[in-house]
Amino acid sequence: MKKMLLRFAICVGLVLSPGVQAEPIVIRFSHVVAPDTPKGKAAEYFRARAEALTEGRVRVEVYPNSTLYKDREELEALQLGAVEMLAPSLAKFAPLGLREFEVFDLPYIFDGYEALRRVTTGPVGRELLGRLEARGIRGLAFWDNGFKSFSANTPIHGPDDLHGLRMRIQSSRVLEEQMLALGALPQVMGFSDVYDALRHGVVDGTENPHSNLYTQRMHEVQGHLILTGHGYLGYAVITNKRFWDALPRDIRRQLERAMDEATAFANRIAQEENEQALAAVRAAGHTVVYEPDARTLAAFKQALLPVHQRMEERIGADLIRAIYRATGFDPSRM
Q1: Which GO terms describe its cellular component (predicted)?
Q2: What's the rounded mean pLDDT across residues 22-33?
Q3: Domains of the chain, residue spans
């Protein structure tokens, strides 16, 4: 009997001993792009820093290339708790009733990364992330991908060359209006389906930052690319609010630190990755790359800036004006 009690005491001591490691908290981080894109690399960077800073108390499992959930599935999966972390493109929040996030899709609203950062790291960005909480989502950070160019299977020397083309877009009323303003036919399609759709002629062209174009091999089936820089593609890194709030406070602090570091990394490499991808597209030799002159860029802006006014009712005129003030943007000078 004494031996049994002794064995029991030893077992209890082992369970209660602070030296015995509990099972790590698992964070499943799902995204739809390749591991070698800016978002893919940033997700891996976050994984490494989160696991290091928490000394193994957290394990992050990264699922790239839609291997866990596709575009239209992932937000619902997050809300249901089937996945803990995502980094969806900002247009994805409109179906949740948060149309204001489509403000990032407005053509030519950001004149480069400096202007963009005044929004994403300022009061406007913080207020937008705060609006996610009513949907059971905690917004953690904004990550860049980059500025987009138009590609097609026919030459693009100016806005008129997009007339009548079937252009793939992600689901966004703003992007639909953008394509209509150019006389193109917008086709909403999940990101993982785009390469095959281009290869089989289901759509004629698309818009992408160069890192997406290259890593998804779209340049192999797109003969023409024009460097318009007309729109921004970025992501909000989000988590399930109930999961996040239930984390031990010290774990949450370390994850916030890991996210801050990953965000600085993501936004630092985005421009570099896109420049390298454009060079790789040129070197591959499948695609003719057009660099528009000032007159051509002015023509694109003239065609696309009216989209701002047409989207005021949907997005909110006050929000659009707040971004104008933050960035110093004046559409009347375009």
Answers
A1: outer membrane-bounded periplasmic space
A2: 93
A3: 23-328
